[in-house]
């Protein structure tokens, strides 16, 4: 049994990661300040004896180091972040504090207190708007937002600490994650959670453009399993890996699944394409398989079916 500290534990990916770690028999300490997460996401975990929760800010001076010093986890999974690309554009200072400086605090807390492994929530946003598909870990990185730049900088900060101080660091570049507990209230949330909320309330959806734009949608259950493997699998080396399926799904295909579940829903409306929207995104998944033995298992059809049934 390992003891894993999860930052951003009350969030969408964080809460599924906590549940997956507990189900695998590990002890988990969760940290979150509820900036975008919800206590309700941790309902099951809070009833588990091997889970402890701390409300706090990873970016507050000394707070994380004090917690790590008390808890002494074997691994830290660092998911807490300012998660909106749009907010990183309107408030780059806050993006720097929460997505760059906080990463440094995680690295330092781990170094000071002998944590052996750090898993970091990076993003396909590090690649920016490139047409070099599928995106491989070696593809040129050209972030086009403060958010993407911060994720790339965080990878470098953590890998540098890892190399210098003997920590194993796994940077996981998640692609488009979907599934239960994703907050649809934010206009910048994943498109699937927004579609889900609209279909659920009997409204139709608008697709900007012809709907042929594609994404590499990955189920949150697969992402949680990738986090479990990265944090606890034996003999894992430091590195960076895409956490993706390698399959491109168009928005029209996504809407097709919803339409089958909601036959009475209004027809899709097409709006003008939005400037700045990336048309395609697709990752190459082989590296995560080689490094962690991770392959995505949940198809978009199955994952959407679960989301539609359970919310
Ligand atoms: N959802 C995706 O498709 C996706 C894709 C790529 C990367 N990511 C990354 O995965 C991670 C988790 O994202 P998510 O989709 O679960 O979003 P989320 O908003 O549901 O989770 C983020 C969590 O971090 C918490 N948090 C934020 N700032 C904090 C702070 N200073 N101190 C303590 N807690 C704080 C929030 O309250 C929230 O619970 C983030 O790092 C995000 O950038 C997500």
CATH topology of the domain at 3-178 and 220-246 and 284-297: Rossmann fold
Which regions have little confidence, pLDDT < 50, spanning 5+ residues? none
Q: Per the principal axes of the C-alpha atoms, what is the gross shape?
A: globular
Distance between the termini: 31 Å
Structural class, by secondary structure, is alpha/beta
The overall pLDDT, averaged over residues, is: 96
Query: Ligands in the structure?
Result: nicotinamide-adenine-dinucleotide
Number of helices: 11
Overview of the structural elements:
The chain is of the alpha/beta class. It has a domain at 3-178 and 220-246 and 284-297: NAD(P)-binding Rossmann-like Domain (Rossmann fold), CATH 3.40.50. It has eleven helices and 13 strands. The strands form four sheets. A seven-stranded parallel beta sheet has the order 3-2-1-4-5-6-11, with helices on both faces. Strands 7-10 form a two-stranded parallel ribbon. Helix 2 links the parallel strand 2 and strand 3 (51-55). Helix 7 (191-200) runs parallel beside helix 9 (251-261). The protein is globular and about 55 Å long. The site of nicotinamide-adenine-dinucleotide has 28 residues, from helix 1, strand 2, strand 5 and strand 7. Nicotinamide-adenine-dinucleotide binds at residues 7-8, 10-14, 31-37, 57-59, 79-81, 83, 98, 121, 123, 174, 176-177, 190.
Descriptive keywords:
13 strands; alpha/beta; Rossmann fold; two-stranded parallel sheet; 11 helices; single chain; binds nicotinamide-adenine-dinucleotide; seven-stranded parallel beta sheet
